[in-house]
Amino acid sequence: MAVRRTAVLAAGVLFAGIPLLTACGTPHQGAAAVVEEDQISVSSLQSQVNDVRAAQAKLPNGDQLREQSGNLSSSTLFNLVLARVTDRALEDAGLTISRRELQDYLKDNEQYIGGRKVLETVMLQQRGVAPDQIDAYLRTDLALNKLAEHIGARRDSPEGQLRLGELLTKTAKSMDISVNPRYGKWNSTDLTIDPTAEPWLPKPTGPGAV
């Protein structure tokens, strides 16, 4: 079955209508999150945040971008968790993503936006994604396209976004997912990561911390 490759930036908002993931429990020590047995360490998350901050600093509007992407740690962590959930959803549906498919999708996005450099700038400014994180980010987006087509949903329609969101929520609930509260707390009603209100919780530290 041929999968329609819709450029990630064409829809305006990449994850519009797609809920975050519900879970409960306490993550392992030193982990920003744990998905099944896969630990996303605080150090690896902070490294990705630092990469974004370093890339932002090279742009003329770097200070403005830093201010606009204040909760970068939580949004980056969400991307990492979502990637694992979409991988499980692909597996459950009997779908795969080949290296060639990912390369073609990357090329589609580069052509759509006007070249690699433009893509890097737009992804950094609009998505908070560093240049070396683009491939992983686009792989998740391609997975969402495949899953949407598999269930006959359109990602550019409210109904399609709702159906895809329901699929991801069902998948996430079947998985053992826990998130370190320093990056937020799960809202099981709205399926979002809300900021923690407790001032005693330790916050990330380091040059890229937020």
TrEMBL record:
<protein>
    <recommendedName>
        <fullName>Lipoprotein</fullName>
    </recommendedName>
</protein>
<dbReference type="Pfam" id="PF13624">
    <property type="entry name" value="SurA_N_3"/>
</dbReference>
<feature type="signal peptide">
    <location>
        <begin position="1"/>
        <end position="23"/>
    </location>
</feature>
<keyword id="KW-0732">Signal</keyword>
<dbReference type="InterPro" id="IPR027304">
    <property type="entry name" value="Trigger_fact/SurA_dom_sf"/>
</dbReference>
